[in-house]
Amino acid sequence: MINREDFQYMWRGKAIRALPKAEEKLLRPIKKVKKTKKTGRALVLIHGFSSSPAMYRALIPKLKHYDALFCPVLPGHGENLAAFMSTDHEAWREGIHNYVEPIIKDYPTVEVLGLSLGGLLSLELAQSLPIQRLYLLAPALKLTFNVPLAKTLAHVLHGCGMKTIKNKGGNLHMHEHDELTYKKLPIRTIIELFSMIQSHDFAVPSCKTDLFLGVHDEVVHSEKVAKYFEKAANCNIHWLDRSAHAIPLDGDIDTIAGYINDYKVS
Questions:
Q1: Is domain 4-262 in CATH 3.40.50.10320, yes or no?
Q2: Residue-wise pLDDT tens digits, 196-211
Q3: CA-based, 20 to 30 A from 134: which of 115, 144, 211, 233?
Q4: Over the range 234-263, which residues count as b (16 or more CB within 10 Å of their CB) and which as e?
């Protein structure tokens, strides 16, 4: 069940406004189907940590050529703080795999777009399912801080009885949009995110891949992430001068949509 009081709009770590009742629907899954199964082209969009389908509210209207658009809510996300506190990285992995697998069976062409944590999940999907194309937005392969050290600190704080910390979300370069996210982050769930990053077994995707990196990203270490893909012939790296971490809400939305819309299925 959604608890609006657990969410707020943020920009550069500051609370901008509360979530009104009329916008609660932004937290819910998105499913837009124009064409019947078996003949269409589908895109699955996967949001990031502490986020929701609201992250794609500005990008989706700009996308063309798709017969179906799907944006699920990862387990524990988009509901309430208690649900977020009780989820784990294996639930994220299993949940997204079980969500995408039937879509693969129903549509001959399936592409996947993922942001941050969603980028990691997208990479893992491409290792086990026949994805035609990947769009990776700041995949959380490397963060701007020492993950093992941060994880140790999180364990210490949790062991001392500390349950949550204030969210510093809204890492945006421009200010046309704000990020809708949880007000607080459960320390236990932060540990799950770190465990997910540490346990991720990176492999260069075999499918065509577009990697989008924000020049002003303060969450993901863009330069280190780029090195994972720089020698991959099937990967195009796009540097976004007007974007930080919340790329689908930042200053390069039209550029990203343009690259996606230019791709023609052979």
A1: no
A2: 999 999 999 999 999 9
A3: 144
A4: ebebeebebbbbbbbbbbbbeebbeebeee
